[in-house]
Amino acid sequence: MASVKSSPHLLSPSPLSACMEVKQDLLANLQSGAVMPIANPIDTASPHQPPTTNLKSEIFAGLSSPSPFLPSLLLWGDNGIRHFNKLTFHPKYYPSRTELAMVKRYAEEFASITPAGSVLLELGCGSLHKTSIILSAFDRLRRPISYYALDVSEAELHASIQRLRQDFAHSKFVSIHGLYGTYDDCAAWLLSLSTSARPRGLPNLAPGQVISFLWIGNSIANMHPPEATAMLSKFHQACSASRLQCRFLIGSDACGEPATVLNAYNSGYQTFTDFILSGLDYANDILGEKIFHPENFRVETEFDRATRLLSVYYVATKRVELVWHDSAGHDSIRRVLEMGERLLIIFSYKWSAEGFARICEDAGMQIARKWTDKEIDYNFYAITSQQSLADRLKRWSTPFDTYILGGVVLSILSISLIGELFFL
Ligand SMILES: C[S@@+](CC[C@H](N)C(=O)[O-])C[C@H]1O[C@@H](n2cnc3c(N)ncnc32)[C@H](O)[C@@H]1O
């Protein structure tokens, strides 16, 4: 599907030196300790793409699919993320505005439910504008936190980490780190903690310690429900294998009102179309050739009320012939888009609270707490593992534990009885 895809070619993390061959500028960042790449490159011939993805083959696969699409990762190139950041401040774009207001209102609650001295790892961190407000709450509450920001948008990640580090340069409570890679890379990296004696980049985490994942901006909803469930389980399982407790704080848009949704996502305003069309330029960068001409496409959005699914398409405004040449200069791929034909670029669900709860339950997790903006119907959910609760209950109900507990109680009773006999 066109959403964020699990890379089929994911390689497990390996020594830093291998990653450093990809880009010279990474070296400087590694030395400064600001951002760490957490996965191996699979296609060094396409230096513009995130390390473990193969966007070139995903583009070709999408174009030849019966329901054609382009990978949504194309929206998160250096230009795309800049356009997205502009969009987040546009008055029409209610998701960011609503989430920002909620973060301002609840930041201290979010900080106080996160154990002091634990790890907070943000998935798809973007500009870190809202994050900075949450981290300030940790600072005000004098609650130590090791914050890790993960993103695939490399230049933006470096820039925003640098800004955040300046903002918190004098903080005694907040430490800041960047991780460059995809969600899948991050889950694989966490899993590697279970086998690696000295895990790279993370503080020595004692068994049982908590990692809280911050996943805001309704980014989880750029996946179909089974994909979202699979991603939550992947993190959950990686943490369990590393004997860490995993929790999530997730921002999720539940607005099912078509007029509100389509007012925010529509081609009638430039900020939105600029963001979406930037994906075609990034596709050309990846392919190393200008095969997409943005002027031959317009942007179209539709919202399906029943499934609560918003879809965003490129629509060919005339008959378009896409031809890509291989390194020998031969026509390697030829695809004709008829006038009006659509390519899906991204989708976003607006799950109800019940729909969201099902996704968590299917991943073996549960909603522990919920904060709602009633005007828009936007939610923040604190999600915990069902297993950890079940484990705790089980621990007190096994015959072995009952015997031990019984033994302790009996010993205390007999000691006090003997004591009383002596004093009588
Ligand atoms: C909708 S934006 C949200 C940004 C930010 N969290 C916010 O709330 O404004 C999605 C972010 O996730 C990042 N992203 C998208 N797909 C990703 C993936 N597969 N792995 C890691 N980051 C990803 C994008 O680069 C972008 O910064």
UniProtKB/TrEMBL annotation:
One of its GO terms (biological process) is methylation. Coiled coil: none annotated. One of its GO terms (molecular function) is methyltransferase activity. Pfam families: Methyltransf_33. InterPro entries: EgtD_Methyltrsf_superfamily, MeTrfase_dom, SAM-dependent_MTases_sf, SAM_MeTrfase_EasF-type_put. The chain crosses the membrane at residues 403-423. Residues 56-383 form the Histidine-specific methyltransferase SAM-dependent domain. The keyword Transmembrane applies. Keywords: Membrane, Methyltransferase, Transferase, Transmembrane, Transmembrane helix. NCBIfam families: methyl_EasF. This is Histidine-specific methyltransferase SAM-dependent domain-containing protein.
